[in-house]
Design brief:
Elements: H1 11-26, H2 29-40, H3 46-72, H4 99-114, H5 136-149, H6 160-168, H7 172-203, H8 207-217, H9 219-236, H10 240-258
Helix pairs in contact: 2-3, 3-4, 3-8, 3-9, 7-8
Length: 279
């Protein structure tokens, strides 16, 4: 009974709130950034610009894993204890790396990188051949003009449930794309979450080396693929249907190649009473 102790640290609350604030700040970048590019860039250049945006976004996790690898080599209480008195190494299962250091470095970097956004102009010069009706602003203006012509009864605000059901969930292409994205991100998040632990357990690697290997092998090909996809779409000037066929083909090939993971692995450890008998 003397060995039992209830956890008294509330650090997880700060991590939770920090991630919530980070998510709130990150959310506008992708939809508004893509809309910004779509409004003020030539139509044939938009796929390349969007691909560059997502490629740079993939470099963030890559550097994050490399930073995590570096921080995992440092003891958790670095700066507060004498490192010469520590007798264990990062290969020891009792080792705890400086996990908190990455949050400080990442937060400071995010703050500094957000400063240039304050100097972006509200409006850019549109290409000469751009059609006003094809931009988001022109579309909104046309919608506003049409709405003014409607009768007051049709101008009443509608509930969010009606909007979601009629506009969003009623659009088959949007709903299909949403379901596809959920499946892809669910698989990708699970892959990034458990692959380091799998490498530690099955291949006897340290936390630092596992993060380093994932950062340099898994994420760069994804970023390269996104960038090449944007170049291919620009070269062949794909429309909605062409892009859908292209996406389906690449996703099917990725799924087929992913099946090869079932043939890669190690034998289970010999654990008495679990995988082998006590005899």
């Amino acid at each position: 009974a003397g060995c039992e102790k209830e956890p008294s640290s509330y650090m997880w609350i700060y991590i939770l709130l920090g991630n919530m604030l980070r998510g709130i700040g990150e959310t506008p970048i992708t939809p508004l950034g893509i809309s910004y590019l779509d409004d003020f860039a030539k139509e044939e250049n938009v796929p390349v610009y969007v691909a560059c945006l997502h490629t740079i976004a993939m470099m963030g996790p890559m550097f994050g894993f490399l930073l995590g690898s570096l921080c995992a080599k440092l003891y958790v209480d670095i700066g507060f204890v004498d490192l010469g008195s520590i007798t264990i190494t990062p290969q020891d299962s009792r080792w705890v790396g400086a996990w908190w250091l990455g949050f400080l470095i990442g937060g400071a970097t995010s703050f500094l990188s957000a400063i240039p956004f304050c100097f972006l102009p509200k409006s850019l010069k549109k290409p000469e051949e751009a059609n006003k009706d094809k931009t988001s602003r022109g579309l909104l203006e046309n919608m506003g003009a049409s709405r003014n012509k409607l009768s007051p009864e049709k101008n009443k605000p509608r509930k969010w449930s009606v909007l979601l059901k009629g506009k969003l969930m009623g659009n088959r292409m949007y709903f299909t794309f949403l379901c596809c994205s959920l499946l892809q991100f669910s698989g990708f998040i699970g892959f990034l979450t458990y692959k380091p632990k799998y490498m530690e357990q099955q291949y006897g690697q340290s936390t630092s080396k596992s993060n380093f290997l994932i950062g340099v092998t898994s994420l760069p090909p994804v970023g390269l693929g996104i960038f090449l996809g944007g170049l291919i779409m620009k070269k062949y000037k794909m429309g909605i249907i062409g892009a859908t066929k292209f996406s389906f083909t690449m996703s099917f090939l990725a799924y087929a190649i992913s099946l090869l993971h079932f043939f890669v692995g190690c034998d289970n450890y010999a654990v008495a009473g679990m995988t082998v008998s006590y005899e």
